[in-house]
Amino acid sequence: MQLFLSLLAYFPLLLPFLYISSVFNPYEAPKFYAFIISMIPLSIWYWYVSRKKLPSVSLFGWVVLLFLGILLVADIFGLDPRTSLLGNTYRMQGFVLWFFSVVLFFLVYLLPTEHKEKLYKMTSSIATVTGFVLCAITLVQAFLLFVLHDSTIPHYQGRIVATLGNPNFLGGYLTMLLPFIILSIWKKNIWIKLFVTVMFGLSVFLTDSRSAVLATLVTMGIFGIQSLSKRKQVAIYGILGFISIMSLYVFSNSRANHRFSMWDNREIIWTEGIKAMSASPILGYGQDNYELIFPKDRFMKVDNAHNIFLEIGVGSGIVGLVIFGVILYLGFMRSELAVRLVLIAFIINASTNPVSVVQIILLWFLLGFLRH
């Protein structure tokens, strides 16, 4: 069982580093296929070990299964069932991804309490290391790109993408790891705290992701409020001040990065999504079909709602959206502080940007740690 727990802890948090330049969609595809292929033996292994004492599914588990069922029905009867089930070639976020993410959720959620506690400790440590390594990759890429002017370094309009291929994916994923990083360094000396703060702050700054900056400020602010010690609160708000100064530069540089407005056409994207959702409010149009519902006369290619709630609403209707909201609410109410902060960071990032495959996987993985 120890080996199973170790694989379960390492596996979701190593996925962000998978990148194969020679394949189509070199960032998302390797992560997607590695996840699917690895989940099958892990699931069989768990069933074999637990077959004589499989735990019963709780109310929260049934809500998750209901959500998965709604997605399946919506996808089958949607505009393009094949795309909805398998996911489009760019996002790869069809039913298959959500199904195996829910399987991962149950592998964690149904563990006995003592095993789940061990897994949580391992996850916390690995998440911290993953965050450090991602920050290191980000800073090295920035040095090579901006200082040595190495044109081979991948970037998006001067924004660092590391191994996730998109600056918003990178910033969003880092903020989901941030709560574990904070908790791991909180009792360290001031120099370690300062080093980690600068390292993380610069990494988020280099993504130029405004949602990531906001998520960082909010999660660290909430963490500071949770602390009873005034000295700790002063330290947290000092960190917030540091990141706030950088965020001013991020916003002021929007024009330099060819970002035409505060919302980068999101008002148009959201308006058309709401119109489409109101036209098919019950079960929507199936997942990953946003490009099909977006009007051609807008002369824009849009394959995602840039808002997780609108994306789910368009894909599975009000029914799917309400159940997803219930899952997030129950998840928040029944989780530890670190997981609560992760949920907040995810919601902030996913409210204005598409999310990556690894963000969805990490979300469901951490939901598995909720109390029954």
Description:
This protein is mainly α. α3 runs antiparallel to α5 (95-109), α6 packs across α8 (190-207) and α7 (167-185) runs antiparallel to α8 (190-207). A hairpin with a 2-residue loop joins β1 (155-156) and β2. The chain is 69% helix and 1% strand. It has one domain.
Characteristics:
372 residues; mainly alpha; two-stranded antiparallel sheet; 15 helices; 2 strands; globular
Chart the SSEs and their pairings:
Elements: H1 2-14, H2 28-50, H3 59-76, H4 81-86, H5 95-109, H6 113-147, E1 155-156, E2 159-160, H7 167-185, H8 190-207, H9 210-226, H10 230-252, H11 266-279, H12 290-293, H13 308-333, H14 337-350, H15 357-367
Antiparallel strand pairs: 1-2
Helix pairs in contact: 1-2, 1-6, 2-5, 3-5, 3-13, 5-15, 6-7, 6-8, 7-8, 7-9, 7-14, 8-10, 9-10, 9-14, 11-13, 13-14, 14-15
Number of DSSP strand runs: 2
Please describe the biggest sheet, giving its number of strands, its sense, and whether it closes into a barrel: 2 strands, antiparallel
The class by helix and strand makeup works out as: mainly alpha
% residues in beta strands: under 5%
Mean pLDDT: 87
Quickly count the helices: 15
Inertia-based shape: globular
List unreliable stretches of 5+ residues.
none
Distance between the termini: 21 Å
Radius of gyration: 20 Å
Q: Provide the succession of SSEs.
A: HHHHHHEEHHHHHHHHH
Helix content: 55-70%
Number of domains: 1
